[in-house]
Amino acid sequence: MNRKESRFSGALGGTCLLAIVVAFLTGGAQLAAVGKVDAQSKNQPAIRELRAAAKGKIAPDLLESFQRAPGQPRRFLVYLKDQADLKGAQGLNDWEAKGNFVYDALKQKARTSQQNLLGYLETQAALGRVVAFKSFFIVNAIRVEAGEEVLMELAEREDVDHIEAIKAIPVPKPVVQPERRTEGIEWGVDKIRAPELWNEGVNGSGVVVANIDTGVQYSHGALVQQYRGTATGSHDYNWFDPTGTFPNFPGDNNGHGTHTMGTMVGTDGGSNQVGVAPSATWISCKGCESNSCYDDHLLACAEWVLAPTNLSGTGADPTKRPQVVNNSWGGGASCDEWYLASVRAWRAAGIFPAFSAGNSGPDSGTVGAPGNYKESFATGATDSGDVIAGFSSRGPSACPNSGIKPNVSAPGVNIRSTTPGGYESWDGTSMASPHTAGCVALLLSALPSTSIEGLESMLSTNAVDLGSPGPDYSYGNGRIDCYAALHGTKKGRLIAEPTSFEVTITKGAVTTRQLSLQNIGEAAASFEIAEVDLGTENALGKRRADGASKKQGLPTGRLGKRAGAPELSRQDLPSAQSLGRRVPVPAAALGGGTVIRSWDPGISAPWGIAYDSKNDTVWVSSPVSSWEGDGNIYEYGTDGEPTGRSWPYSWNPPYGPADAVFNLNTGTLWVMNVDSSGGKNCVHEIDPGLGYTGTRICPGGTGFSTSQRGLAYDPDTDSYYAGSWNDGMIHHFASNGTMLDEEYVGLDIAGLAYNPKTKHLFAVVSADPGPVYVLDAANQYSVLGSFEIPGFSGYSGAGLEIDCDGNLWAVDQNTRMVYQVESGEEGAGCKSSDVPWLSEAPTSGSVSIDSSVNVELTFDATTLEPATYKARLVISTNTGQDPIVVPVTLTVQEEVDIFTITATVKDGKGGSISPSGEVQVPYGSDSTFTIKPDKANGYKTVDVIVDGVSVGARATYTFSEVSANHTITAVFGKIVVTAPNGGEKWKSGSNHAITWDADGDIGEEAVITLLTRQGVKHSVIAKSARIALKKYKWKIPTKIPAGAYKIRISSKAHPKVKDTSNKVFKIIR
Questions:
Q1: b vs e for 374-390, b when ≥16 Cβ sit within 10 Å of the residue's Cβ?
Q2: 3-state DSSP call for residue 311?
Q3: I need a labelling partner for 440 at 20 to 30 A (CA). Which of 362, 770, 786, 1029 fits?
C-alpha cells in the first residue's frame, strides 16, 4: 500500500467536473466564487463532490490540525502528479554525465510542471493569503505555509496529487553505554573484516561519503583530515544546513551525526580507529535540528546530496555528489512513500542509499520508512556475539515487493565512535547502518565502476548467515563481511559469448554485434572492458594518428635477430652449486645494443624504468633515502625532458622500488617493491594522473619470500615476469597473483623486459661484464644469446623496458644515465588503448547470479581503407578469474552488393537478438544470429520467425550465402509464479488464489501442477487455466496431506515456458 492509499480515504473523481476545475484555476478565484457559479447553474451536488474529492487528497492529520486551530496558517507539502523520467541515466557510465542527466531531468520537470502553481502562490502571497512557499525539484513538490482556504484551493487543482503536513521525525535516541577504554581498531570495524582490506591497500581512498543527520563536528581530531572542506579550503559544496543552526561551518548540537560519520571514516591515526573506511572523504547535510528531523529539511538535504551547493544553497553541482549517503533516521513501519522519489533519484545518479532499519524490535513488521522501501538498503543491529539486538526492527516490510528487510545486519551494540569533544559507546541501528555505508566505500575504492545493484548483491550474497538458515526478517541476508564482499566466499564467474568476432563489412559501412557476458558463478560479478589496438594484418604495429614517428628521424631499432645465432641449451648454464656470486652466462652474440639516445634524468640513484606507450613517455624510479634515492618516480619525454609529473611511494617501502612496467590494459604503472623481510615483496600500482592507488599484486598471496629486482609485463596474457640476482630465477605470475611457472636461469638479474611479438624475455644483469641476455619465454627461458650496451661498465645493470618499436630502455646505475638502445628485434607495435573503429556499450557494469548483460559492439568503417584490422577486448572482473580476452577482427572490403537482414525482438522486450537492427551482409556471406531470453526476469524463447515463417525456439539461426534481404524476429514470453511463492500457510479445504505474472505470445491456457518439496509432481490442479486472468481460484482438496509443496505453472502451447514457486508453502490442517 502506498502512502496515498494508506492515508487518504478518497481520490479525485468525476471527470465531468474537469471544466469547473480548469475554469477555477485559470481565473484564480476563491472557492466562494466557484460556489456562486455552481449555485447559478444549480449544480450543488457537483460542488459537494468536488469538495469531497479535494479533501481526499489531503492527509487527515493536516485537516485535523486546521480544525483544532481554525484560522491559523500551517506548513504543508503539495505533491504534483507529474514526475520526471530518469530511465535515461541507466545507460550512462560516465559519473559526471549520469549526475548531470538526473539533476537536469528533475529540474526541468519541476520547472515546467510547477510553473502555473508557483504563479498562483505568488499571487496569493501578494494578497497576504500565503505566508511562504518553497519548491523541491527532487520530489516535484512545494512547501506552502498558508490557511485552510488556500489548502482547499490547492487540493482542487488537477495537477496536484496529494497534500501532507510537515512532520517531525524524532532523532533516534541511542542507548549510551559506559565509556570503554581506547582499543585501537573498534570491535565492529574488526568484526566486518575491514582491516583485512586495509592491509591490501583498500581503505576507501577516492570515495566520497555523506550523511544526513544532526550535523558533524568537523574539527574533531578523528574527522578533520577526512573532511573534503579541509582539502578544498572551503565549506562550500561540503556542508549544508537547511535548519539554519550552523549556516557557516559543520557543527553538531546533538552528537548523533558525528557518531555515525565517525563509524564511516573516523581515525586519529593512532589508537582511535573507529571508522570502516578511514581514507574516504566526507561531506554532510544537517537534516535534523536537534532532536527532530522535519520533512522539508530532509528533502532539502536529499536535493543537496544529489547536487551539492555552496553554503547559501546556490550553484548546484551534481559532479560533487557523494557515492554513498548514510541515513540513520526513519519514521514508522507503514509504507510511507514520501521520500521514495528522493531515493530513486539517488540511485539513478549512482548514489548508494544506506538506511537504518529502526529501533522498534523485536516485533515483526517494524522496519521503518524509508528503510522499508525496495529501493533502500536497510541495516539491522547485531552485538559482538553476532546476535541480533532486541531493539533492532524486524521485517517484513509494509511496502510491496520489497524483499527481505532488513537487507543485512551489522554491528550496532556498544559501538564506540566520535562525539563532539571525544568518544562514546552507543547502541542502535543508527550505529549499524554506517558500518554498511563504510563497507560500500571500501568496495567502491577497489571497484569504482560497480553499480548499486552490484554492491547490494556483493554485500548480501557474501554476508555471514546468522539465525535461521538463509535470509530471514531478523538478520536479513546476514551480518556484513567487507572482505568476503570484495573477494567473495562465493564468487561470480563470467563467460563471454561469442569468444571472438570476425566481421566483414564494406568500406564506409557501420554494423553492430552483441557480446553476452553471462554469470555462471555463485555471486554477482562486476566487469570493465578495455580495448587494445593490434593494428592491421601484416603490419609491424598501428600507425600513429599523424602518420609520423615520434622518434624525430632516429633509428627505430627494427634490425631483426641475427641469422644463424646459436641457441644455448640449459646444460650450458652454470649450476647453482658452482655459482656462488653468479658469473655471466656464456651466450652467442646477437644484433642489438646500438645506442639510439641517452640522457641524464637528473635524479639520485635511478633504478626502475617503464615506457608509457599511451603517452610516449618514460618513467624512472628512484629508491628511498636509505638507498641514496629520494623516494619518487618521475616522468620524462623520450628526449629526456621532464614532464613535471612525479609520485612518491605511499606504501612506505624500507628500501624502494626496483624495476617498473606500464600496463596498457589498466593504464597504470606497476612497480616492484624491495623489502628485506619476506612476504612484503609485492608489485604496487601507481596511476600516472593520481598517484599510488593502494592496489598491489602479491604473488602467492603474501609476496615473494626473496626480494626481486626485474619486472616485465606480457599484455597478451595479462601476466608478469620477475627476476633477481638473489635467486637467479624467473617467476611468471598472473595479474591476480597466481604463480604460473618458475624457472632457475642462473643470471644476476637486475632488470627485465618482454617482447610480446617474439615472446622473448630480455634480462640485463648486474655483473662484470653485464650484458643483456635474450631468453625464450616459450621454451623454459632458454638463452638465445646476448649483447653488450656500449658505455655500461661492470655491475651497471638496473631497470629495463621495451617500447613499441622493439627498442630497449635501460638504466645505468653507475653513471645514472638512461639509454635507449636497439634490441635486435621488431616490436609489437604501438598498441593503443583506444580502437578508433570499435566501441562498446556499456563498458562496465555488474552481472547478477544466473543472468547476463549484453554489450553492443559497434564496428565503424567510415574512415577505414580496405584491409584487415585487429584488436582485442580485455574484460577485467572482480571474480578472481583471469581477464577474459576476446579477439576481434574487422575485414573492410571494397564495395560489393549488400543485403539487409532486419533483426528484431517482438514487442521489444523479453530478451535480445544479436546482432540486432538492420544488419548489412555482403553478397554470398553467412550471418549468424544469437537469441537470448532475459532469464533474470523469467523470460524464455517462445519462437523464432524467419521471413514470416516459424522455425521454432532456438538459440541461434544462420543465414547461409546471403543473396536477398531477410527478416528475423525473436519471440519471448514468461510465466512467473507470484503466489504461493514461499512461506504461505494455506489451510486444507479453504479457498486461495494462485496468481502469476505472464507476458508474451505464450498461448491462452496454462497447466497448474502441485509439486512436492522435492519438485516431484503430486497432482494437476488445473489443465486449462486462462493465462490472461493471471489467477486461479483453488479450493484445496482435503485429501491432500498436510506438508510442504510448490506450484508449477506452464504454458499449454509452449511447455518450456514455465515457472515454479521460489520456496515451499505449507498446507495445514
A1: ebbbbbbbbbeeeebbe
A2: coil
A3: 362
Q: Residue 561: what pLDDT? A: 25
Pair type for strands 656-663 and 642-648 = unpaired
How wide is the angle at C-alpha 680 spanned by C-alphas 675 and 684, nearest 5°? Answer: 95
Q: What's the CA gap between 679 and 803, in Å, rounded?
A: 31
pLDDT band at 7 (very low <50, low <70, confident <90, very high): very low
pLDDT at residue 275 greater than cutoff 50: yes
Residue 769, classified by CB atoms within 10 Å of its CB into exposed (0-12), middle (13-18) or buried (19+), is middle
What's the pLDDT tens digit per position in 144-202?
A: 999 999 999 999 999 999 999 999 998 877 667 666 555 689 999 999 999 999 988 89
The total of other beta-carbon atoms located within 10 Å of residue 604's CB is 13
CA 602 centroid distance within chain:
42
pLDDT digit string (tens) for 975-1016?
999 999 999 999 999 999 999 999 999 999 999 999 998 888
Contact 322, 351 (CB under 8 A): yes
Decide: 1001 and 971 in contact? Cβ < 8 Å: yes
Q: What value does the mean pLDDT take over residues 50-58? A: 81
> What's the CA gap between 722 and 698, in Å, rounded?
12
| C-alpha–C-alpha distance, residues 31 and 47, integer Å | 10
| Residue 560 near residue 784 (C-beta atoms within 8 A) | no
Average pLDDT over the chain, rounded to an integer: 85
Q: Can you name the residues that pair with 1044 across neighbouring β-strands?
A: 1066
Give the pLDDT band of residue 737 (cuts 50, 70, 90). confident
Phi, psi dihedral angles at 529 (to 5 degrees): -110, 130
Res 44 pLDDT > 80? no
- Cα 926 to its chain centre, rounded Å, is 38
Single-letter amino acid code for the residue at 344: R
Strands 377-382 and 408-411, by their bridges, are parallel
Do residues 715 and 756 make contact, with C-beta atoms less than 8 angstroms apart?
Answer: yes
pLDDT tens-digit map of 435-474: 999 999 999 999 888 899 989 989 998 999 998 888 999 9
Q: Distances from the Cα of 121 to the Cαs of 511, 616, 840, in angstroms? A: 54, 62, 49
Side chain identity at residue 246, one-letter code:
F
Q: What are phi and psi of 85, to 5 degrees?
A: -95, 115
Distance of alpha carbon 272 from alpha carbon 313, whole angstroms: 34
CA 516, distance to chain mean position in Å, is 18
Specify the pLDDT at position 182. 57
| Bridge partner list, 230 | none
- Distance, in Å, from the CA atom of 942 to the CA atom of 688, rounded to the nearest integer, reads 51
Give the C-alpha separation, 799 to 711, whole Å. 8
Cα–Cα dist 877/883, whole Å: 7
Contact predicate 671/683, CB 8 Å: yes
**What integer is the mean pLDDT of 707-724?**
90
Buried b / exposed e over 269-293, threshold 16 CB at 10 Å, is eeebbbbbbbbbbbbbbbbbbeeeb
CA distance linking residue 317 with residue 344, whole number of Å: 19
The total of other beta-carbon atoms located within 10 Å of residue 470's CB is 10
Nearest to 123 by CA among 186, 29, 251: 29
- Structure letter (DSSP) for residue 290: S
Report whether 216 contacts 284 (CB < 8 A). yes
Quick check: 637 and 644 in contact, CB under 8 A?
A: no
pTM for this predicted structure: 0.53
Instruction: Locate the DSSP E strands across 72-189.
Output: 74-80, 130-136, 141-146, 160-165, 168-170, 175-177, 184-185
**What's the CA gap between 122 and 712, in Å, rounded?**
70
Burial level of 703, CB count in 10 A (0-12/13-18/19+)? Answer: buried
Task: Output the CA angle 385-390-392, nearest 5 degrees.
Answer: 95
Distance from C-alpha of 973 to C-alpha of 940, rounded to nearest angstrom = 6
- For the ranges 316-325, 777-786, 906-915, the maximum mean pLDDT occurs at 316-325
